[in-house]
Specification:
The chain has 306 residues and is an alpha+beta fold. 12% of the residues lie in helices and 20% in strands. The protein is globular.
Length: 306
């Protein structure tokens, strides 16, 4: 059944993007999103706008999942040479254009949604697990989940995000090591264990040691904040699979190579692993209690800015 959430006109949706401060990046089309004409996708059970932007929702077997709109724009992918704990594979800094916007789950896939679609829950951390991220899911199993869900909901067309799309969404217009809405205490230059779920015994830079929870936390709330585009836990909690092969230099391809890209860091890693530019990779059949995924929809490949 159709459900409207904070529904507004296309003009109001477009106005919501104007005046947003952007550092080292630029939104190139404030009004060109799928809700600008006031008509949501056919699969949407809810849609609207809040202070973090435009969103839609779908409902599957009584489980509702929200997706956030990531607008067209460009950003500098990677990290500068002077960034603390930088790895060489994070460079060189490259201007990347996202010519068309895309939807992105506002959270990683929950155990509840994964079990509803696949009929099983492979996760290690199942206590109060419905709203925790599903983990111990391989890249191959994430793709199987997406194929099955796309077959259940016509037009949904979900896939794993590209590595460039993931970093663009994580940064949400920022250029610091961490997105500053999340990492507000150190203005994006560092994080605390109260802001990000990582191994707080291993902070970065000026931050003090903090809590090591030794587990995932729920995908929303629990004292944490989403980034400026309404995306939760882009830093920490679980590493997130991307569609690309893990290469040096960066390669936007879902084929070839021994490993697939993961981004974002996790509950059991150091603070530096949670930086926006950090890249790592695992074999496509790898399953770990620190590995999850966040689907995207309506996306197109990114490209270098001319």
């Amino acid at each position: 059944m159709e459900r409207s959430v904070e529904r507004t006109s296309g003009t109001a949706f477009a106005a919501g993007w104007k005046g947003r401060g952007v550092t080292e990046g630029r939104i190139i089309n404030t009004g060109g999103h799928p809700l600008a004409d006031g008509r949501p996708p056919k699969w949407a059970s809810g849609w609207g706008q809040d202070r973090q932007g435009v969103f839609v929702e779908f409902t599957y077997r009584e489980i509702t999942q929200r997706l956030r709109w990531c607008p067209p724009g460009w950003f500098r992918m990677g990290s500068p040479k002077g960034e603390t704990e930088r790895f060489k594979n994070e460079g060189p800094l490259t201007e990347i254009t996202i010519p068309e916007g895309f939807w992105l789950f506002d959270t990683t896939v929950t155990q509840a949604l994964y079990e509803a679609v696949m009929g099983t829950n492979p996760s290690r951390f199942t206590e109060d697990g419905a709203n925790r991220p599903v983990e111990q899911v391989s890249w191959e199993e994430a793709r199987s989940f997406l194929e099955r869900l796309n077959g259940e909901i016509s037009g949904l067309a979900l896939s794993l995000p590209s590595e460039a799309q993931w970093e663009y969404a994580c940064r949400a217009g920022s250029s610091t090591s961490f997105e500053p809405t999340v990492a507000s205490r150190h203005v994006g230059l560092d994080i605390t264990a109260e802001e990000v779920n990582y191994n707080g015994k291993f902070p970065l830079g000026e931050a003090s040691e903090g809590t090591y929870r030794k587990a995932t936390v729920p995908v929303k709330g629990a004292g944490f904040r989403p980034n400026a585009w309404g995306l939760w836990h882009m830093h920490g909690n679980v590493w997130e699979w991307c569609k690309d092969a893990f290469g040096k230099p960066r390669v936007e391809s879902g084929t070839g190579g021994r490993y697939r890209v993961v981004r974002g860091g996790s509950w059991d890693g150091d603070a530096w692993n949670c930086r926006a530019a950090v890249r790592s990779g695992f074999a496509p059949d790898a399953r770990r209690g620190s590995l999850g995924f966040r689907p995207a929809g309506g996306q197109v490949p990114s490209s270098r800015k001319p």
